[in-house]
Write a structure and sequence with these properties.
- With about 160 residues, this protein is of the alpha/beta class.
- The protein has one domain: Mannitol-specific EII, Chain A.
- The chain has 6 helices and 5 strands; from the N terminus they run αβααββββααα.
- Strands 1-4-5-3-2 form a 5-stranded mixed sheet.
- Helix 2 packs antiparallel against helix 3.
- The longest helix has 16 residues, at about 110-125.
- It starts with a helix and ends in a 14-residue tail after the last helix.
- One of its GO terms (biological process) is phosphoenolpyruvate-dependent sugar phosphotransferase system.
- InterPro entries: Ascorbate-PTS_EIIA_comp (IPR051351), PTrfase/Anion_transptr (IPR016152), PTS_EIIA_type-2_dom (IPR002178).
- Homodimer or homotrimer. Seems to be a monomer when not phosphorylated.
Amino acid sequence: MNLKTALIENNSIRLGLSAEDWKDAVKLSVDPLIDSGAVLPEYYDAIIESTENYGPYYILMPGMAMPHARPESGVKRDSFSLITLKEPVQFSDGKKVSVLLTLAATSSEIHTSVAIPQIVALFELNDSISRLQSCSTPEEVLKMIDESKDSPYLEGLDLEN
């Protein structure tokens, strides 16, 4: 699963959105994947239920969350979406997030061995959160992903699929 390809194929980059709260932000991040047929609507419900039970375990760094649920919770194909918010939303643990990169993986192996390294590579770029927030077109986001392609986290990964 290739981050850039998945975002293009699912038409799943949305920039400068407004969310009422964290649930609304998660919905905004899952909607493009529902629209593209990558996940079923219950995928959103599974993320909300999991968050309510376990907390926002998917906040990976200040300002950034990677909402996801189990593959059997409505994932039809491996995919990503990326949204930015005009104003951050606060989660139950007090952390604020303005970039959500939603992951839908058909297996736990894809989640850990292929998806996570690409996400780390993107977010290790200098000022990644503020840079993503200042992107006004999907092409600018894709350019940042291209910039991350030489990351040591991606060595040995086959990202053609």
